[in-house]
UniProtKB/TrEMBL annotation:
Gene Ontology molecular-function annotations: oxidoreductase activity
Keyword field contains Oxidoreductase: yes
Cross-referenced InterPro entries: NAD(P)-bd_dom_sf, Sc_DH/Rdtase_CS, SDR_fam
Family label: Belongs to the short-chain dehydrogenases/reductases (SDR) family.
Keyword Oxidoreductase among UniProt keywords: yes
Keyword terms: Oxidoreductase
Protein name: Short chain dehydrogenase
The organism's place on the tree of life at top rank: Bacteria
Length: 252
């Protein structure tokens, strides 16, 4: 078991995009951080970078949609640190874009499995550790697509809506046990996923920017800043919330 006085954080899907920004933010403030992802090469590289800069980071390859893989992840965390103070369930996929009638069973099943089951599998282990130690914070990364519909994304919207309700349910269950559970719902954030969806086309990305009243897309670091606030005593009276980081999108 590691001998450390720092807080211990887990970030799933932590090797790129929003997850990477969150990992780096935890490391910057001195927390020990466990990076979980299916991309071992990038995850190991990120963990090495943090350690070279004097931080404490551990990469664990894990598929959040696989029960055995998730179980091994948390066994590793308990063996290494013996506790878990912060958990950010960020791993997710966008799935295929089709009208609901054309959405395949395979696409729907895969998207729900990663985006919703993956959060549920993680929370079961996280809450088990946190209720035993008597404290903890969970932040689930949902989406504004979990609050309003988006054409051609039935599986993604359903999965992210489920994450919000799972968040609220757990928040109520553990409110008196010093465990807070919240969700963050980003709008369009400039990540590799968005670059892929837009085919790396600046013109399409500019159209995406116009979707937000602020007329720009968000930055991964802006999501990370919100996570750091939720994973601090400054938000000690905040639980069960789905916080929109959306440039004003849902204000209309």
């Amino acid at each position: 078991m590691a001998n450390t006085d720092s807080k211990v954080a887990l970030v799933t899907g932590g090797s790129a995009g929003i997850g990477k920004a969150i990992v780096e933010a935890f490391a910057e403030r001195g927390d020990s951080v466990v990076i979980s992802d299916v991309d071992q090469e990038r995850g190991e590289k990120l963990a090495d970078s943090i350690r070279q800069n004097g931080g404490d980071a551990l990469f664990v390859k894990a598929d959040v949609s696989d029960l055995d893989s998730v179980k091994r992840l948390f066994e590793t965390i308990k063996d290494r640190y013996g506790r878990l103070d912060y958990a950010v369930n960020n791993a997710g996929i966008e799935g295929e874009q089709n009208e609901t009638a054309d959405c395949t069973f395979e696409n729907f099943d895969r998207t729900i499995k990663v985006n919703l089951y993956g959060v549920f599998y993680g929370m079961k282990h996280e809450l088990d550790i946190m209720r035993e130690q008597g404290s903890g914070v969970i932040v689930n990364i949902s989406s504004i697509a979990g609050e309003v519909g988006f054409m051609n994304l039935p599986a993604y919207c359903a999965s992210k809506g489920g994450v919000i309700q799972l968040t609220k349910t757990a928040a109520l269950e553990y409110a008196t046990r010093n465990i807070r559970v919240n969700a963050i719902c980003p709008a369009v954030i400039m990540t590799e996923m968005v670059e892929r969806i837009t085919n790396h086309d600046p013109a399409i990305q500019a159209e995406f920017a116009k979707l937000q009243p602020m007329e720009r897309v968000g930055k991964p670091e802006e999501i990370a800043d919100s996570v750091m606030w939720l994973c601090s005593d400054k938000s000690s009276f905040v639980t069960g919330q789905a916080i929109n980081i959306d440039g004003g999108y849902l204000a209309r």
